[in-house]
Write a structure and sequence with these properties.
Number of strands: 0
Radius of gyration: 28 Å
Shape: rod-shaped
Structural class: mainly alpha
Largest sheet: none
Distance between the termini: 71 Å
Strand content: under 5%
Length: 182
Protein backbone atom coordinates (compact mmCIF):
# COMPACT_ATOMS: atom_id res chain seq x y z
CA UNK A 1 0.00 0.00 0.00
CA UNK A 2 1.39 3.39 -1.01
CA UNK A 3 0.43 6.39 1.09
CA UNK A 4 1.34 9.86 -0.03
CA UNK A 5 2.80 12.32 2.48
CA UNK A 6 -0.01 14.75 1.68
CA UNK A 7 -2.48 12.19 2.97
CA UNK A 8 -0.56 11.99 6.24
CA UNK A 9 -0.72 15.76 6.60
CA UNK A 10 -4.46 15.76 5.95
CA UNK A 11 -4.99 12.86 8.32
CA UNK A 12 -2.91 14.53 11.01
CA UNK A 13 -4.82 17.79 10.63
CA UNK A 14 -8.16 15.98 10.80
CA UNK A 15 -7.16 14.10 13.96
CA UNK A 16 -5.92 17.32 15.54
CA UNK A 17 -9.25 19.00 14.77
CA UNK A 18 -11.07 16.01 16.29
CA UNK A 19 -8.90 16.24 19.38
CA UNK A 20 -9.66 19.92 19.89
CA UNK A 21 -13.37 19.27 19.36
CA UNK A 22 -13.32 16.65 22.12
CA UNK A 23 -11.33 18.95 24.39
CA UNK A 24 -13.90 21.68 23.83
CA UNK A 25 -16.70 19.26 24.70
CA UNK A 26 -14.81 18.15 27.81
CA UNK A 27 -14.31 21.70 29.06
CA UNK A 28 -17.95 22.57 28.33
CA UNK A 29 -19.09 19.43 30.10
CA UNK A 30 -17.06 20.28 33.19
CA UNK A 31 -18.44 23.80 33.38
CA UNK A 32 -22.03 22.90 32.64
CA UNK A 33 -21.92 19.80 34.84
CA UNK A 34 -20.56 21.75 37.79
CA UNK A 35 -23.13 24.51 37.35
CA UNK A 36 -25.91 21.94 37.05
CA UNK A 37 -24.68 20.16 40.18
CA UNK A 38 -24.78 23.36 42.22
CA UNK A 39 -28.20 24.20 40.80
CA UNK A 40 -29.51 20.72 41.67
CA UNK A 41 -28.35 21.03 45.29
CA UNK A 42 -29.86 24.50 45.67
CA UNK A 43 -33.13 23.36 44.04
CA UNK A 44 -33.29 20.37 46.36
CA UNK A 45 -32.64 22.55 49.39
CA UNK A 46 -35.34 25.02 48.35
CA UNK A 47 -37.94 22.25 48.27
CA UNK A 48 -37.21 20.94 51.77
CA UNK A 49 -38.44 22.15 55.16
CA UNK A 50 -34.99 23.30 56.36
CA UNK A 51 -33.01 24.56 53.35
CA UNK A 52 -30.27 26.03 55.57
CA UNK A 53 -29.49 22.57 56.96
CA UNK A 54 -29.22 21.02 53.49
CA UNK A 55 -27.08 23.89 52.18
CA UNK A 56 -24.82 23.54 55.24
CA UNK A 57 -24.62 19.79 54.71
CA UNK A 58 -23.68 20.17 51.06
CA UNK A 59 -21.66 23.40 51.34
CA UNK A 60 -18.35 21.65 50.44
CA UNK A 61 -20.08 20.29 47.36
CA UNK A 62 -21.36 23.74 46.38
CA UNK A 63 -17.87 25.21 46.74
CA UNK A 64 -16.44 22.37 44.68
CA UNK A 65 -18.95 22.94 41.93
CA UNK A 66 -18.17 26.69 42.00
CA UNK A 67 -14.47 25.89 41.65
CA UNK A 68 -15.32 23.53 38.79
CA UNK A 69 -17.18 26.28 36.93
CA UNK A 70 -14.50 28.92 37.54
CA UNK A 71 -11.62 26.72 36.43
CA UNK A 72 -13.54 25.40 33.41
CA UNK A 73 -13.91 29.02 32.30
CA UNK A 74 -10.24 29.70 33.03
CA UNK A 75 -9.28 26.66 30.96
CA UNK A 76 -11.12 28.09 27.94
CA UNK A 77 -9.16 31.33 28.27
CA UNK A 78 -5.90 29.43 28.81
CA UNK A 79 -6.36 27.23 25.73
CA UNK A 80 -7.23 30.27 23.62
CA UNK A 81 -4.09 32.14 24.65
CA UNK A 82 -2.05 28.92 24.37
CA UNK A 83 -3.14 28.38 20.77
CA UNK A 84 -2.33 32.02 20.01
CA UNK A 85 1.18 31.53 21.40
CA UNK A 86 1.60 28.35 19.33
CA UNK A 87 0.50 30.18 16.20
CA UNK A 88 2.92 33.03 16.90
CA UNK A 89 5.72 30.51 17.49
CA UNK A 90 5.09 28.81 14.15
CA UNK A 91 4.96 32.16 12.35
CA UNK A 92 8.26 33.26 13.92
CA UNK A 93 9.90 29.91 13.16
CA UNK A 94 8.68 30.12 9.55
CA UNK A 95 10.02 33.67 9.18
CA UNK A 96 13.32 32.56 10.73
CA UNK A 97 13.61 29.74 8.18
CA UNK A 98 12.84 32.08 5.27
CA UNK A 99 15.50 34.54 6.45
CA UNK A 100 17.94 31.63 6.82
CA UNK A 101 17.28 30.72 3.19
CA UNK A 102 18.03 34.31 2.14
CA UNK A 103 21.23 34.25 4.21
CA UNK A 104 22.33 31.01 2.52
CA UNK A 105 21.69 32.57 -0.90
CA UNK A 106 23.71 35.69 -0.06
CA UNK A 107 27.43 34.99 -0.22
CA UNK A 108 29.62 36.36 2.52
CA UNK A 109 32.34 38.66 1.21
CA UNK A 110 35.88 38.42 2.59
CA UNK A 111 38.18 41.30 1.76
CA UNK A 112 41.16 43.16 2.97
CA UNK A 113 40.95 45.70 4.45
CA UNK A 114 38.09 44.56 6.71
CA UNK A 115 36.18 47.78 6.05
CA UNK A 116 35.52 46.65 2.47
CA UNK A 117 34.14 43.31 3.66
CA UNK A 118 31.94 45.04 6.26
CA UNK A 119 30.51 47.37 3.62
CA UNK A 120 29.86 44.50 1.22
CA UNK A 121 28.17 42.37 3.92
CA UNK A 122 25.79 45.05 5.29
CA UNK A 123 22.71 43.42 3.74
CA UNK A 124 23.75 39.93 4.83
CA UNK A 125 24.56 41.11 8.38
CA UNK A 126 21.12 42.74 8.64
CA UNK A 127 19.58 39.43 7.62
CA UNK A 128 21.61 37.63 10.31
CA UNK A 129 20.42 40.14 12.92
CA UNK A 130 16.80 39.74 11.78
CA UNK A 131 17.13 35.97 11.88
CA UNK A 132 18.43 36.16 15.44
CA UNK A 133 15.45 38.34 16.41
CA UNK A 134 13.07 35.80 14.86
CA UNK A 135 14.87 32.98 16.67
CA UNK A 136 14.57 34.76 20.02
CA UNK A 137 10.88 35.50 19.33
CA UNK A 138 10.20 31.89 18.34
CA UNK A 139 11.85 30.63 21.53
CA UNK A 140 9.98 33.14 23.71
CA UNK A 141 6.64 32.20 22.22
CA UNK A 142 7.42 28.49 22.56
CA UNK A 143 8.19 29.02 26.24
CA UNK A 144 4.92 30.94 26.60
CA UNK A 145 3.09 28.11 24.87
CA UNK A 146 4.64 25.52 27.18
CA UNK A 147 3.75 27.55 30.28
CA UNK A 148 0.20 28.14 29.06
CA UNK A 149 -0.17 24.45 28.27
CA UNK A 150 0.71 23.58 31.87
CA UNK A 151 -1.68 26.29 33.10
CA UNK A 152 -4.43 24.91 30.88
CA UNK A 153 -3.84 21.36 32.12
CA UNK A 154 -3.92 22.58 35.72
CA UNK A 155 -7.19 24.46 35.13
CA UNK A 156 -8.83 21.44 33.52
CA UNK A 157 -7.52 19.20 36.31
CA UNK A 158 -8.79 21.47 39.08
CA UNK A 159 -12.15 21.80 37.32
CA UNK A 160 -12.45 18.01 37.00
CA UNK A 161 -11.48 17.49 40.65
CA UNK A 162 -14.02 20.13 41.71
CA UNK A 163 -16.74 18.39 39.74
CA UNK A 164 -15.84 14.93 41.03
CA UNK A 165 -15.66 16.08 44.65
CA UNK A 166 -18.93 17.97 44.22
CA UNK A 167 -20.65 14.76 43.09
CA UNK A 168 -19.00 12.51 45.67
CA UNK A 169 -19.60 14.69 48.75
CA UNK A 170 -23.39 14.16 48.87
CA UNK A 171 -22.92 10.44 48.20
CA UNK A 172 -20.42 10.26 51.05
CA UNK A 173 -22.83 12.08 53.37
CA UNK A 174 -25.65 9.68 52.54
CA UNK A 175 -23.39 6.65 52.97
CA UNK A 176 -22.44 7.93 56.43
CA UNK A 177 -26.13 7.93 57.39
CA UNK A 178 -26.88 11.65 57.05
CA UNK A 179 -30.39 12.62 56.07
CA UNK A 180 -31.85 15.70 54.45
CA UNK A 181 -33.55 16.77 57.65
CA UNK A 182 -31.85 17.70 60.95
Amino acid sequence: MVVRIGNFAELTKAREEDSYAYLKHWMNWLGIGSAAGAFAILSLAAQLDDPDYVIGLFLPSLWSFAIGVIFAGASVIAISVKLGAMSEHYASAHNRAQIEDKIQQTPEVFASPQRLADEANVFRNKLVEEQLKMHVRAEETWNSYALLNRLWLACVGVSAIGFIFGVLWPLFQFSMGKTLSP
